[in-house]
Amino acid sequence: MKTPDGRSGTARGPAERPPWRRPGAWDLRVWHVCGAVAVFVESVVLAVTTATSTPPGSPTPVALLVAPPLAALVLMVCLRSGCWRRRSTLMLWPAAVCVVYGLVGVDAPAAARLVPGLISMAFVFAGLTQPPWRSLWLMVPAVPAFVVAWGGLEGSVLQRTAATAVMWVIVSELPARLITHLNEQRVELERLARTDPLTGVLNRRDLVCRLDASSDRSTVSVIDVDGFKRFNDTHGHLAGDDLLRRLGGLLSTSLAGVGDVFRTGGDEFVVVLDEEESSARQRLEEVRRRWAAGEQVTLSIGIAPGGPEALRHADLDMYGDKRLRRAAEQVMESPPESPHGRTTVDPSEAEGAPG
Questions:
Q1: CA distances, 253 to each of 11, 210, 247 (Å)
Q2: Which pTM was predicted?
Q3: Domain boundaries, the chain
Q4: Among 98, 144, 257, 305, which residue has the fewest nearby CB atoms (within 10 Å)?
């Protein structure tokens, strides 16, 4: 078996990353910065509309003076405290947009009515950053802010609010569901790219990185099916495929939680166990015993402690185990010898024997 050298390592387990940390996705810190910028932009837009829609000399709403520095303070706290790692904290920014809109609607409702799309943009932001249905929590600050800006609980205002709320749900849920669906498809494609289609175990793709990450406290094992070609020639390739599937299933179930199983090609498997050699040897011998109890072919197993040369040493140990097993089988199959060193022959089988 050849060592898979010469291959560039790739990050192990990309499918296990959260959707926002996968390749091509924005970092959560970038989304927090975008949320803070949205609050700044909203403050500028509302300040301009207030200046143009109110009589000269009218005071600027307090919310527009407080929102920018408060947004900067919240952004700094989020980035320094580490709470930005929780995707749910991104809901602070669209909620802040709705609150600022409502406070300006109290002091300058005419200005707020000129830019109703600010709340819609808050729902778009929630849809881009949150899973489905979570954006509905924005209804709590958004509906009161909209009602206040548009003049209270009158019939026409309620109708306008209901129609606008439906639009909010659409602009938030459509991107949320689309992104979730695309992430699920990407996870499945990454899983398929890392999985051997016949046996269901991992393929060679991440083996190099897994071996590089193995330490002296881990163990690398190479497993080979004895006489697999003869088995294929006798029983057919479909039976050989079934045998490999059974072996992959046995390794996966027996070693779940303690290591990773890779199929490197043909009838050869590599196992990386997160335990020391003595424990790994006992575990793999149990796997060999369970396999021998129900199969016609045996397994040759090589084991070596983790490290830079672990795969090569395990490969050599596997071939040594195979030679010992073949020698033992030949001794058991050879006819017994006489005390004088000659092979004994049954008289009934000798040439010319009667009957």
A1: 25, 19, 10
A2: 0.68
A3: 15-192, 204-333
A4: 257
